[in-house]
Amino acid sequence: MEKRDHFASKIGFVLAAAGSAIGLGAIWKFPYMAGTNGGSVFVLLFIIGTLLIGLPILLAEFVLGRKGQADAVTSFKRLKPGKNWFLIGWSGFFFSFIILSFYSVVGGWILSYLGRALMFSLDNKGESYYGELFGTIISNPWEVLIGQAVFMILTVIIVRGGIEGGIERASRIMMPALLIFFVVLVVRSLTLDGAMEGVKFMFVPDWSYLNAQTMLLALGQAFFSLSVGVAGMMTYASYLPKDQKLGSSAFSVSMLNIGISLMAGLVIFPAVFALGYSPDEGPGLVFIILPAVFEQLPFGAFFMLMFFILLLFATLTSSISMLETVVSIGIKNAYDKRKRAAWIYGLVIFLVGIPSALSFGVFADIKIFGKTFFDFADFLTSSIGLPVGALLISIFAGYIVKKSELIEELNISPVTFNTWYFIVRYLAPVAIILVFINAIISAFRG
Questions:
Q1: Which residues cross the membrane (predicted)?
Q2: Residue 368, beta-bridge partner list
Q3: Can you tell me the distance from the alpha carbon of 327 to that of 342, in angstroms, rounded to the nearest whole number?
Q4: What count of Cα atoms within 13 Å lies in the side-chain half-sphere of residue 178?
Q5: What are the tens digits of pLDDT across the range 86-108?
Q6: 239, 4 Cβ separation under 8 angstroms
Q7: What's the whole-model pTM score?
Q8: What is the pLDDT of residue 1?
Q9: Residue 227 and residue 187: Cα distance in Å, rounded?
Q10: How far apart are CA 90 and CA 353, in angstroms?
Q11: How far, in Å, CA of 174 to CA of 304, rounded?
Q12: Which of 86, 121, 205, 408 is most buried, judging by how many CB atoms fall within 10 Å of its CB?
């Protein structure tokens, strides 16, 4: 048995935790959610929701993880011995496992686009080509399975290296690269003629969109984009030494998540408006509309290549946190088993994800409650697993752990602590329940 690994520095932890949050939710989902819900008002509500609800729950996960100093299941057992609260940890294991099984499928799609971009075979194709290409990629069984397998191998290679040598090292490379790529793409997008229309869409409020539905959708996006509810952040925090300030780390992660989401919007919306496209194209905005937009730009093939590298980095930084949650629970304290466990769990997750990978081709006609395997896995995790997990974490931190222990662990001013404690005990649970009910109703209506 080896000594428990730790992050070597605060910046390494913040980059890894931010990478966990900054995935497809920020770069793929945020732009199309903002685009289909009025832009500016959604953006404003998203920022408020992140700081008011998402940040306190994120901090709760950090507190529980650092105090437990173990995998999520063991941490809950240490924090409340003899009770069944450890089942929250197993819930995190299960839902991280399922999320990664279909998340890796999207990672495979990105690799398919990236491969074509590297060969410069995506330029000068015409607008209709990209819609056909997306349909061709996701329905081709061999392409999606190979892409999914390669993505899982990349994820396993990073996780098997451990915290400092694998996850922290990879995050220190990928996160700064992601930020640099984003800055370049934002500058290019903002220099297009007509780009200011996209900026106005994002930042000049159209109050006609201010309604209960938009508020709940924005809160849901803020909440889920921080990757809380499945014990991933709790797992990362368990590798923190006691001298690290949790409050500042949680704030940094939240601000990075907001910043990357806004930058994703500033890459996409100015270009979309400048080149005459509609911002409400939905989920196809990144895979269909954006390549068509890049095609019309000078050096468009280069910028398209940069974007898909960026998207791959963001997706990988999230996938490694999910696999780490699964592996850490699977090996308990037997850290010498990490390398073998990473490969075994990676293989099983790949196999479980095969039905999701084939959902748009071979298995397209097979439905569970009217949903494809892919959509059902997404619904099960996003609409049920994450909110229920986050609700239980909020209740555990707010009502089960002794207040004196939380004060000692957080080491923040009394005013800040009491504000956080009030939100975790009262405001966050109500907000989570509302988002959960809205997601369930919307799913069945759809």
A1: 7-28, 40-64, 85-111, 144-163, 175-196, 216-239, 251-277, 297-321, 342-364, 384-401, 422-444
A2: 371
A3: 6
A4: 31
A5: 999 999 999 999 999 999 999 99
A6: yes
A7: 0.90
A8: 41
A9: 28
A10: 19
A11: 18
A12: 86
Do the Cβ atoms of 380 and 388 come closer than 8 Å? no
Q: Is 3.40.1130 the CATH classification of the domain at 10-445? A: no
Please list the residues that pair with 371 across neighbouring strands.
368
For the chain, how many residues are written? 446
What six digits make up the tokens of 69? Answer: 């100093």
Token pair, residue 49, equals 């929701």
Determine the longest span between alpha carbons in the chain, in angstroms.
64
pLDDT of 6 strictly over 70: yes
Q: In whole angstroms, what is the distance from residue 164 CA to residue 8 CA?
A: 6
Give the whole-angstrom CA distance, residue 86 versus residue 218. Answer: 31
Q: Position 198: which residue type?
A: G
**Contacting residues for 262 by C-beta, under 8 A, at least 6 apart:** 43, 202
Asked whether residue 213 carries a pLDDT value surpassing 80, the answer given is yes
Question: CA-CA distance, 421 to 403, in Å (whole number)?
Answer: 9
Write out the chain in H/E/C secondary structure: CCCCCCCCCHHHHHHHHHHHHCCHHHHHHHHHHHHHCCCHHHHHHHHHHHHHHHHHHHHHHHHHHHHHCCCHHHHHHHHCCCCHHHHHHHHHHHHHHHHHHHHHHHHHHHHHHHHHHHCCCCCCCCHHHHHHHHHHHHHCHHHHHHHHHHHHHHHHHHHHCCHHHHHHHHHHHHHHHHHHHHHHHHHHHHCCCCCHHHHHHHHCCCHHHCCHHHHHHHHHHHHHHCCCCCCHHHHHHCCCCCCCCHHHHHHHHHHHHHHHHHHHHHHHHHHHHHCCCCCCCCCHHHHHHHHHHHHCCCCHHHHHHHHHHHHHHHHHHHHHHHHHHHHHHHHCCCHHHHHHHHHHHHHHHHHHHHHHHCCCCCCCCCCECCECHHHHHHHHHHHHHHHHHHHHHHHHHHHHCCHHHHHHHHCCCHHHHHHHHHHHHHHHHHHHHHHHHHHHHHHHHC
Structure token digits, residue 30: 């945020």
| Between 169 and 44, residue with greater pLDDT | 44
Taking residues 59-86, report their average pLDDT: 92
Of 253, 233, 248, 257, the closest CA to residue 410 belongs to: 248
Please give the average per-residue pLDDT across 405-412, as a whole number: 89
How does the average pLDDT of the chain come out, rounded?
Answer: 87
Residue-level pLDDT at 303:
82
Picking from 83, 276, 130, 101, the residue whose alpha carbon sits closest to that of residue 192 is 276
